[in-house]
Amino acid sequence: MRLVEQARSIFAELGYTVEGNGPDFRAERAWKVVHVNAVSDVEQLPRCSGQFHCFVTEPGDVDDLEVRLESLDTGYEWAIIAADGEDYQVERAPPGPKVTV
């Protein structure tokens, strides 16, 4: 449950309104809704809908989670945050918009 509390705290500190209980919840700010999943088992990823997703996990699980997500045809943009106590690090962010010159 600690990971869930950390995930909720991170998004609240970033100015998002956090809705829902448990390891899967919504974080909303302005026009953007992010579906957040606190992941303790990278093999048991929840089925997701929506355009933006953020997976919050322990630092030691980041690489395995990234490999797992890259192997799936998710159909949404995703990011990974490593949460370690009071600290967190964005380990993988969605790619920015494509620019043609």
The major beta sheet can be summarized as: 6 strands, mixed
Computed over alpha carbons, the radius of gyration is 13 Å
Mean pLDDT figure: 86
Distance between the termini: 47 Å
What share of the residues does DSSP label as strand, in percent?
Answer: 35-45%
Instruction: Please give the order of strands in the largest beta sheet.
Output: 1-2-3-4-5-6
**Poorly predicted runs:** none
**Helix fraction by DSSP (H/I, runs of at least 4):** 10-25%
Number of strands: 6
> Count of helical segments?
2
Order of helices and strands: HEEEEHEE
Structural class: alpha/beta
List the keywords.
101 residues, alpha/beta, 6-stranded mixed beta sheet, 2 helices, 22% helix
Can you put this structure into words, describing what you see?
With 101 residues, this protein is of the alpha/beta class. 22% of the residues lie in helices and 36% in strands. The protein contains two helices and six strands, in the order αββββαββ. A six-stranded mixed sheet has the order 1-2-3-4-5-6, sandwiched between helices. The longest helix has 12 residues, at 2-13. The model has no long low-confidence stretch (mean pLDDT 86).
